[in-house]
Amino acid sequence: MTQPGKIETTGGRNSLRPSDDEISFLKDRAKFCRLETIRLIEIAKVGHYTSVFSAAELFSALYYDAMALRRGEPKWEDRDRFMMGKGHAAVGLFPILADLDFIDRDLLDGYTRLGSPLGDHPDMTKVPGIDFSSGSIGHALSAGCGMALAARILGKDFFTFVMIGDGELQEGQVWEAALFGAHNQLGRLIGIIDRNGYQLDGSVDDIIGVEPIVEKWQAFGWATHVVDGHDVAAITTLLRSLKADRERKRPAMIIAQTIKGKGVSYMETEPGWHLGYLDPSDAARAVAEIEAMEN
Amino acid sequence: MNKPLSDKSWQYRQLNSVTPGLDALSDALIELVAAGEPIVAGTADLQYSNGLSKFHQLHPNRFVQFGISEQNMVSAAAGMAAVGMKPYIATFASFLALLCCEQIRMDVAYSKLPVRLIGHHAGISLGFYGTSHHATEDLAIMRSIANLTVIAPADANQLMDVIKAANDYPHPIYIRIQRGRDPEVYAERRPFKIGKAITHCAGTDLTIIATGSTVHPALEASRALQSAGASVGFIDMATVKPIDRDAILEAAAQSRKILTVEEHNVLGGLGGAVAEVLTSEGLPVKLTRHGIYDEYSLIAPPTHLYAHYELDTKGVEARATRILEGRA
Question: Which one in A233, B193, B199, B289 has a CA-CA gap of 20 to 30 Å to A79?
């Protein structure tokens, strides 16, 4: 297993473009997220591998670079906030929270066991570092709107990040929040769509198509940015530039083009892995492929 | 962005005659702002119906207009509460309780966030607007959500007392109110204790327990019955959850007959809550639950509906008389 991160605080970089060392570090942390996800789902015997794998670089860029956080201080009042509409990817977040000393690393080993605070979805009442509970799809962007608006009323400086799935765009409440965020000029609100193209029953485009995503968000008044969701340099540069513009009025929506199951060849080509369980030989193959990913 | 209301808007409000009872909502929140509380008020395109326009006028930076997006309003209020604010959000009880049930359960109640959910125009008070606007299920829904406290004030003064008591209360609260035209039950403001019933009098023949809008007619009915010689107790069960078990058990011991009155389906509301207490104690008490009898209410002006469903003074008196005479 890769080693825990070395950073003490994140956020507030001077240069928009990450250095080669920073890129290498962020790739390493995405790899760590994937490997830990395999390990934890082994404990639960079933879980959402591919939903984490599509978002691993996004998690890494957020938690290890873009977001203002303090190691070991999950309740730091001025931290940037993050919440996930696609709550079923929580299994990939927990190792990162442990890595940042927000939760005890020993907790990871009890993932989903009776009485564990760590379940399939993030729970703010049980897990330090989770800023908002999720599980029911479609609420998170609204909650993010509330946080961003409250920050303005309270005179707080933090940014609010909300990750949503592309299938989640089928929920009507997302578009209520889209209207609200733009109308209220919530420029410190940054949404990220993990556009991996799949939901539980199959392809998003086949089930209820959500394209054209970019034009929809633009029409709703959001600043839109399309990025390769596995290119940590591109993601980090974009997030740094969005944070650098502290006077922006329009909320931003990042459409991150991702691959469901990224990093494990047989998952990338088989969308049926939305919810699954790896037997030991498949798990070994997955680990080997992830470890072979370029740093 | 929220802008101060224009003069024209203010006139519009005046023309639409928001009643003093609903001004109480704004007045209570204005008091909290003056006390330095980090409160924010929000509504879903109903500031003239619930009287929050008055609050909006005075504190435009503490007012959030959500437009017609109730679910977004509830989740956003939860987000605001998660970073240190105390949101009070108000819309028609039918839309709040039924449309936003899941947002209330998951985003507010589960995490015990200090959001105050104000469902107004509850019960059948929207009269001719029809079934879509009648809320006769909200108490049952809200009562079944863990961590959520449910209060139905009887009049404007009690509403202000409830909001004052709610401010430092550690749980989320659903506050069920009417349309601001409730007759006065309490002439003065007085400290409200959440979870504590207000026992107006004890009786040995029958105890009437009412909540919210039915407190006034039921109290009047109890007085009429007392004047006619019956020993009738009366309890204002403003807090439906957590319900005051002691008050119910005391009433049961005194009278052995209880009549609950509510502007709600008899299933799952106040009557259901009282039944749960009585049955859990195994007491030999005759309980009659009076309200809307598991049907969709008719379309009519509210006063006509209250008469039709025997939820006015005369109706409650008639219902109680049948119990006292052993005919019901």
Answer: A233
CA angle B307, B46, B218 (to 5 degrees): 25
**Distance of alpha carbon A216 from alpha carbon A119, whole angstroms:** 34
- Structural contact between residues A33 and A56, judged by C-beta atoms closer than 8 angstroms: yes
Please, what is the average pLDDT of chain A?
A: 94
For B264-278, what is the mean pLDDT?
98
Q: What percent of chain A has pLDDT over 90?
A: 91
In sequence order, which ranges of chain B are alpha helices (DSSP H)? 7-15, 20-34, 47-50, 52-58, 70-82, 93-94, 101-103, 138-143, 156-166, 215-227, 245-255, 270-281, 302-308, 313-324
> Would you say B240 and B264 are in contact if contact means Cβ atoms under 8 Å apart?
no
CA distance B255 to B235: 13
Percent of chain A with pLDDT over 70: 95
Chain A CA closest to residue B67: A180
State the smallest CA–CA distance between residue A95 and chain B in angstroms.
23
Helix (H, G, I), strand (E, B) or coil at B89: strand
Do residue B72 and residue A177 have CB atoms under 8 angstroms apart?
yes
- Supply the pLDDT for residue B300: 94
Q: What is the mean pLDDT of residues B176-205?
A: 93
Give chain B positions within 8 Å (CB) of A183.
Answer: 1, 67
